[in-house]
Model the fold of this input.
Amino acid sequence: SLVKEQNFFKITRQQDNEVMFSNMFFYLFTEHPELLQKFAKDVLDLSLDTSPLVEREKDHMDLRIIDDTHYIIIENKIKSSINGMKKMRREDFLKQDGKYISQLSEYYAKSQKQKQSDGKSRDVKCFLFTPNYNRINKDDYLNGGEYKIIKYSDIYNFFYDYVESMDEEDTDYIYMKD
Done:
C-alpha cells in the first residue's frame, strides 16, 4: 500500500496541511492536463473541455477550474471545518432558513456573479475535499447543498490506480505517488 511507504508529506510532517495538498493538486492539474481530465471524469463525474483554466486561491477559493461549460469550486478541508462562518442578525435569521453564512455561500455567490459578468451560462459545480474522519454537515450552511463531498479515500484510490498505470520514469511520478 502506498500509504504505508515514506513520502514527502510524512517526512516533512505535512500530511495534515491543507495548503500543501491544495498546492499539490494545483501543480498536478496544471502540469498534467490528462490527469485533470481523468480526475474530473472519474472522481468529480464531469467531462471538462480540453483546456480548462485552473486557478489557486483566486477569490480565496482553494481551487477554481473554469472551462467553457463549467465553473468548478474546490474547497479542501483536512482537519478544519468551514471558515468565515457567522450567524446572521436575528431579523435576517428566518429569511435564510437558520443557515450559517460561510465561505461556502461566499464562493457560491461569486460563481453566480461570474455567470452574470461574462455572459456564459456555465454549470456551477462545488466540491468539498475532506478525509473520511472529518465530518462536515454541509446542510448547516447557506448554499451547502450546492457542494458535493469528495472523500480523501476516493482521491487516494484514484491516484493509486493512476500511479499504477504510470511508468516510474515518467515526469512527476514520485510526486503523484506521494
